[in-house]
Design a protein that fits this description.
It comes from Clitoria ternatea. The chain is mostly helical. Helices cover about 65% and strands about 0% of the residues. The protein contains 29 helices and no strands. It has helices at about 5-20, 30-50, 50-70, 80-95, 100-115, 120-130, 135-140, 145, 150-160, 165-170, 180-190, 190-205, 215-235, 255-260, 280-290, 295-315, 320-335, 340-360, 365-370, 370-380, 385-400, 410-435, 440-470, 475-485, 490-505, 505-515, 535-540, 545-550, 560-565.
Length: about 575
């Protein structure tokens, strides 16, 4: 008998004996040699490429899988590595033995990974397994990864940057038509997820070996006692009869539905996450009242990079209807982000880049989404973050003509919203300018500067929108005229309005500077307009216009280029 046959018989006998061994029958993972035997037999089946060998191994491996799954609740050892090795066998040889791997894969996620995602070895092996089999999983089981993306996000949130490269290989597979939009708030809330997981570990012990879904069951007796106490003593659940066992002022009720929603393992659609809820407030207080943990710091750094991948895949592969549906959620969440200074800056920068890229690619979205856009413009002064979002929306409305030439009714409604924003805030701008500069606090100075910046964008958007839709020109002249005559408002806003009023006196120049870059017929460039991107190669004169801008009288030509452009 050859050495290969001896090894084959030994490992096959090992699998058979494990079912009769009282020590391993009810807990197969407790025997480390069993994992080695499964891997060796799998390797031999691949090397020999023999259907007979696969048929002999499959029944024994399948029995071990069933026993391991049944023992998960009572097992004190990790089953993840053993189950992953068996799942690899199923994927490689399932067609030969007519085994559908889909139920086994879902059982692994629901019963095993939900308990062992915090185990570094299991987490790494899971991502390696998903990365190696990514193509087959996406073609044969396309709904698997999108269904369990919350669990995989818990895995990467807990294990941090050391698994980031592996996770990024798998991450695009989490996106599907059913998970694309629900995935977005999960990415934004990754830091909150880490804080919640750390709270669970602190209150309930190590995360390895216990399913977070069991929290609700474990707290049920406590809730029942609280209800009985309320019935007999009159004390409410919230006040606990004037007694609290916890000294933590930011205590989190881990049985709260919102908390369990945050920690769920499967995708069941978009869930509302009210930031004003007591649980969310408690989670944020727990984060800000203590120094950031290393795990939270890692996620604060990693989440923006995950958003980069999310948005790049969205622009490349996702259909327009899903992207259009994402935009209102993006605008709604723009001001509700974990308020770490660097994290919020990096995230908001990516949100704005994606928003503007989407409008650039599909200008008609502005018309389709006029209602949420108008709502955001109405909140322009609620906070600095909402001001910045409104500013960028004003730019997009003007740049893309409110959705294009074919959306005149929507453009008119957007124009009216810009008018309202302008008129409502001109008076407050005047009030700010009447105060002595020396009496203004830093906060007032910042607010005044931010307000003036926004009004400049509003004025520009009104002028550009009227240039795109010429039926709006009379109203635009009235609006800009009021700004220009408002002597005590910010000088920059007045100057901008005067500039645009001057441009509107010459329709050809106004159309070239403020008009659309695409004609209604769909050609790249309208007749008479300038494509400034080609200015370096196609401009008639290489003397920048701003050099001649201060000159008065007829043009003069008694100079050489060396007088204007320095020698290199």
């Amino acid at each position: 008998m050859s050495e290969r046959d001896v090894g084959w018989d030994f490992h096959l006998r090992k699998l058979s004996i494990s079912g009769r061994d009282s020590n391993t029958a009810n807990d197969p993972a407790s025997d480390p040699a069993l994992l080695l035997s499964v891997k060796k037999l799998h390797e031999l089946c691949k090397t020999e490429n023999s259907e007979d060998l696969v048929a002999r191994v499959y029944p024994q491996i399948n029995k071990i899988f069933q026993r391991a799954v049944a023992s998960l609740a009572q097992s004190r050892t990790s089953n993840g590595l053993l189950l992953l090795a068996i799942l690899q066998f199923y994927l490689d040889f399932g067609e030969l033995v007519l085994h559908d791997a889909d139920p086994s894969l879902r059982t692994f996620f629901r019963s095993c990974l939900s308990r062992e995602f915090a185990d570094p070895a299991v987490a790494k092996a899971t991502l390696e397994f998903l990365s190696i089999n990514k193509k087959k999983l996406l073609t044969s089981f396309p709904s698997l990864l999108p269904q369990f993306f919350p669990l995989l996000l818990k895995l990467i949130a807990w294990n941090g940057e050391r698994l980031e490269k592996l996770f990024l290989k798998v991450f695009p597979g989490l996106m599907s038509p059913g998970s694309f939009i629900p995935l977005f708030p999960y990415l934004l809330d990754l830091p909150i997820l880490v804080v919640a997981l750390e709270k669970v570990e602190k209150s309930s012990g190590p995360l390895i070996g216990s399913s977070i879904a069991s929290i609700q069951k474990n707290t049920a007796p406590k809730m029942l006692l609280a209800l009985m106490d309320e019935a007999y003593t009159g004390s409410t659940i919230e006040d606990g009869g004037g007694y609290s066992e916890s000294e933590d002022s930011s205590a989190i009720d881990v049985a709260d539905p919102f908390f369990l929603e945050l920690l769920k393992d499967e995708n069941d659609g978009i869930a509302e996450r009210p930031w004003s809820s007591p649980v969310m407030t408690s989670i944020l207080q727990a984060a800000f009242n203590t120094p950031y943990s290393d795990r939270l710091k890692a996620v604060l750094s990693m989440a923006p990079r995950l958003l980069d991948v999310y948005f790049s895949v969205a622009l490349r592969d996702v259909n327009d209807s899903l992207i259009c549906a994402l935009i209102p959620l993006l605008m709604l969440r723009f001001a509700t982000i974990f308020s770490d200074k660097i994290f919020s800056y990096e995230v908001r920068k990516r949100l704005l880049e994606f928003l503007l890229s989407t409008f650039q690619r599909s200008p008609n979205f502005i018309a389709l989404l006029k209602k949420p856009i108008m709502d955001r413009l109405g909140e322009a002064y609620d906070s600095p973050d909402k001001t910045e979002l409104a500013l960028q929306l004003c730019w997009a409305i003007g740049e893309h003509g409110g959705g294009g030439e074919s959306h005149k009714d929507e453009a008119r409604e957007l124009f009216e919203s810009l008018e309202l924003l302008l008129y409502e805030n001109l008076s407050s701008s005047r009030l700010g300018m009447t105060q002595e500069v020396s009496l203004l606090s830093d906060k007032d100075t910042y607010r005044s500067s931010s307000q003036s910046r926004l009004l400049c964008f509003v004025v520009t958007a009104i002028a550009k929108l009227a240039t795109h839709h010429r039926e709006l020109l009379p109203r635009a002249r009235v609006s800009l005229g009021k700004v220009a005559r408002s002597r005590i408002s910010d000088a920059r806003v007045c100057r901008r309005a005067c500039d645009f009023l001057g441009l509107m006196k010459d329709p050809a120049i106004c159309s070239s500077i403020l008009g659309p870059s695409r004609s209604p017929q769909g050609t790249t460039q309208k007749v008479g307009s300038i494509n400034w991107n080609e200015g370096a190669t196609k401009m008639i004169a290489h003397i920048p216009f701003y050099i001649l801008g201060e000159q008065e009288g007829p043009p003069f030509h008694d100079f050489s280029f060396s007088d204007v452009i320095p020698r290199i």
